[in-house]
Every structure is written in structure tokens, then in C-alpha cells.
Amino acid sequence: KAGVTQTPRYLIKTRGQQVTLSCSPISGHRSVSWYQQTPGQGLQFLFEYFSETQRNKGNFPGRFSGRQFSNSRSEMNVSTLELGDSALYLCASSLTLDGLRYFGPGTRLTVT
Amino acid sequence: AQSVSQHNHHVILSEAASLELGCNYSYGGTVNLFWYVQYPGQHLQLLLKYFSGDPLVKGIKGFEAEFIKSKFSFNLRKPSVQWSDTAEYFCAVNGADSGYALNFGKGTSLLVTP
After folding, report:
1. I want to staple A88 with a disulfide (CB 3.0 to 4.6 A). Which of A37, A41, B13, B28 is the partner?
2. Cβ–Cβ contact B56 with A under 8 A
3. Distance from CA of B58 to the nearest CA of A (A)
4. Cβ of B99 under 8 Å from any chain A Cβ?
5. Average pLDDT over residues A16-20
6. What is the mean pLDDT of the segment spanning B83-97?
7. pLDDT over 90 (residue B109)
8. B104 to A42: CB separation less than 8 angstroms, yes or no
9. A-side interface with B, Cβ within 8 Å?
10. Could you read off the pLDDT of B8-37 as tens digits, one per residue?
């Protein structure tokens, strides 16, 4: 089976812009979760979707949002980008909400 | 509040040395415990997991971890490290009480010198 894929792999944006990241889960997986990885904070949970419904949300501002489509693919959107949003954004998929997470390669976002 | 603490942020070892990375958690209810590894330039991948049963779990590449419920700990061990073990190691916890959201520690950067 193909693994979790994320597009784009690298992105450079300017402060104030918005960005959309995409995640395609492993075939058959219905849960997709998103994480922000930074050197100072490590890996922080953003949100998780299962069957197109947000099931969990981390402690991030409303500028961070997401959605999941009927084919389980997920997108994450960040509006009004700030310099501090520069990070590696990881997506993970699992068969069920309580299942093992399999991670994608991440999208490296740089905000200038 | 739920939290995961990794005691060592940076560890430097010589090849063949033994490794123990500490992980403690603060969590209500039944927990699932994980160690993930991120090799330079690679995906985050699962080293080992504990859901229930034998508290001593074995993972890939000779790693093992012991769940000590009374100490809220899940320390990672390897008897003899290799240069190829150089990576970032993350402890993670989830459980039904938090809807199975995966909560990570801040990671330990391990450098193994030849």
C-alpha cells in the first residue's frame, strides 16, 4: 500500500497570506490527524477528522482549520499567516480513531 | 491537564553504549503509549507501542520499553546503540479520555558517535 502523502512538500509564504496543505491517507484509512512540529515546541496536535467530522481539536487559534472529504483526503488551512507559523506540518492516518497513526513526510512551511 | 515529559533533550553516546530515554506522562484513564523515531530526512515512524498486556514491549531495531504504571513512565532502552540510531525520539500517549488525540513529548535528539 502507498503511504501517507502530503502536498506540497515545501512552501514559502508571506506574512498575512493564507495557505492550504493537503494530505492523502493510506487507502482504507478513515482518520486523518494533523500536527505542527517546531524545534521549540516539538510535535503539537492540531486536529483530527474521522468520516468527514472533526473529532478532536488541539489548542491552536481559529486561523487553523481543516476539513476531510468523502474519500478521506484532508486539507488544512492557515489564514493570516504569522512568522511563528513556520513549521513542519505532519499528517497522519489511521484505520480508526484509536488505531495506530502512520505519518506522512510533512509539508515544510516557511513564512517570511 | 494531559502532558508528556521527556527528560533528556539531547543525548550523545558512543557506539555500543547503552541507551535509556525517560518518558513520563500525566494522563487520566487507560492509556496507550508509543515511541516514535524520526531519522534525519525521514518520516516519523513507530518504534514500539503499548496497548495492554506485558508491560515490557519490544520494538524494531532492538529497542524495548517498559511501562511502569505506578510511576507513569514508559522509558525506552537499547542495550547497545549504533551510529545509525542517530535520530530524534518522541514519546507519545493517547487514551479514550482525550478522544485518542496523540499527545507527544518534546523529543530527545540522540547523537551516536563512532
Report:
1. A37
2. no
3. 16
4. yes
5. 98
6. 94
7. yes
8. yes
9. 3, 33, 35, 41-45, 48, 55-56, 58, 90, 92, 97-98, 100-106
10. 899 999 999 999 999 999 987 889 999 999
Residue of B nearest to A43 (CA): B104
Angle at B28 between CA B72 and CA B100, to 5 degrees: 100
Strands (E) in B1-114, as ranges, are 3-6, 10-14, 19-21, 23-26, 31-38, 44-50, 56-58, 64-68, 73-78, 87-95, 103-104, 108-113
Query: pLDDT digit string (tens) for A37-72?
Result: 998 889 999 999 999 999 999 999 999 999 999 999
**From CA A47, how far away is CA B58, in angstroms rounded?**
30
CA gap A88, A25 in Å, rounded:
18
Closest to A111 measured CA to CA, from A90, A82, A75, A72: A82
Phi, psi torsion values for B60, nearest 5 degrees: -80, 160
Which residues on B lie below 8 Å from A56 (Cβ)?
98-101
pLDDT at A104: 96
Neighbours of A56 (CB within 10 A): 19
For residues A103 and A91, the answer to whether their CB atoms sit within 8 Å is: yes
